[in-house]
Amino acid sequence: MRATHTFRLHRSDAVGGRCRRALLGALLAVLAAALCMPGPALAASKKPATLTFTPARPLDSQAITVTWKADRAPRDGYTYRLELVTGDQIECASNSGVDLEPKWKKGARIRVKFRPVTESVWCLYRTRLRLIATRGFGPGRPATVIASAYVPITNNSATPIPDPPGTPTKIDLLEGSSMTIRVPGRPDRTSALTGALAGRMPGRFRPNSDLAIDLRTGTLSVSSLAADPLCTPSGRAYPSPVNMNGTLSSLVLGASGVGVMTLVLAEDPLALTGCLGPAPATSRPIALTGTVGPTGLVTFTMTGSLGGVRLNEGADATIDITLVVKIDLSGR
Question: Which tens digits make up the pLDDT trace of 190-199?
Answer without folding.
Answer: 999 999 999 8
